[in-house]
Design a protein that fits this description.
The structure is a single chain. This protein is of the alpha+beta class and 265 residues long. 53% of the residues lie in helices and 23% in strands. The protein is built from eight helices and ten strands. The chain has a five-stranded antiparallel beta sheet with strand order 4-3-2-1-5. Strands 6, 7, 8, 9 and 10 form a five-stranded antiparallel beta sheet that branches. Strand 3 (139-143) and strand 4 (149-153) form a beta hairpin. The chain is rod-shaped, with a radius of gyration of 33 Å. The chain starts with a helix and ends with a strand.
Length: 265
């Protein structure tokens, strides 16, 4: 009889805890669902990249469900100290094993939030360069000029210097030419400016085409040539000026015309 009484008391106690846990689970699930819907309507999040938006929403949802599970464990009478110790040990082990991946994840979030570059931009970073084809949470995918696909982990990419060659709407073409020392600088400069002004893709804003003698040796004079253009026209202007200026100098009888590459980006 005493055994039955204890069994009855145990059933009442356990049953009460189970009913309370079930009620907390149902209510908690409804509250989490409502909170996630409210989070999805936050306008600030709509301004973020869709990948970041989903990550934040899922992270918050995971955190809320974790709190709900811990609450249920506490209601059922499981010692929290043991659970916390196990979770801490597991978290430390996972964190150590995924240290590099977590670094890449953090770098990916920073790239997606601060946007130092976008898809189709031409960038240089982590020792590689090319057109950005994809920005994921753990890696960034580049396509090089010679059609190679390069996968760069986001951690090293975000922690290093990034050069974005196409972010601005305008770029300046810089070239250096040399001629024989005996040639008149004014004559050479006039030819160079005439060629640049004749190029329809060369623009005057933010500065007009520029050509100026910048140095000399006993045998040659060096000239700096600068021309602004729309970023998408950079390569067209770059190669056109090299060819057209060289041909114009040769046609004018200028001796020993040559060009030295300043930038190839």
């Amino acid at each position: 009889m005493e055994f039955l009484n204890k069994l009855q008391d145990l059933a009442v106690t356990v049953g009460g805890k189970l009913l309370l846990a079930l009620a907390v689970f149902i209510i908690g699930k409804i509250v989490i669902s409502k909170l996630c819907k409210l989070l999805g309507k936050v306008k600030k999040l709509d301004e973020l990249d869709p990948t970041v938006h989903r990550f934040i929403t899922n992270f918050v949802k995971f955190g809320l469900y974790t709190l709900l599970v811990l609450s249920l464990i506490s209601i059922l009478g499981v010692p929290m100290a043991s659970i916390v110790a196990v979770l801490a040990s597991a978290g430390l082990a996972i964190g150590m094993s995924l240290q590099g991946s977590l670094s890449n994840l953090a770098g990916g979030l920073m790239l997606l939030i601060f946007r130092p570059f976008n898809v189709d931009d031409y960038i240089s970073g982590a020792g590689e360069e090319g057109f950005v084809k994809k920005i994921a949470l753990f890696y960034t995918e580049l396509l090089t000029i010679d059609n190679r696909t390069v996968i760069i982990p986001n951690g090293p990419l975000m922690n290093g210097n990034i050069i974005n060659y196409t972010r601005e709407g305008k770029r300046r073409v810089d070239l250096v030419f040399t001629t024989a020392r005996s040639e008149s600088p004014k004559k050479v400069q006039d030819i160079m400016k005439e060629v640049m002004n004749a190029n329809e893709k060369v623009i005057d804003d933010p500065a007009a085409p520029f050509a100026q003698a910048s140095g000399a040796t006993n045998e040659a004079t060096e000239y700096i040539v600068r021309a602004w253009c729309v970023t998408s026209d950079y390569w067209d202007v770059y190669f056109a000026l090299i060819q057209d200026i060289a041909e114009a100098l040769a046609a004018a009888g200028v001796q020993s015309p040559a060009v030295r590459i300043v930038t190839d980006k």
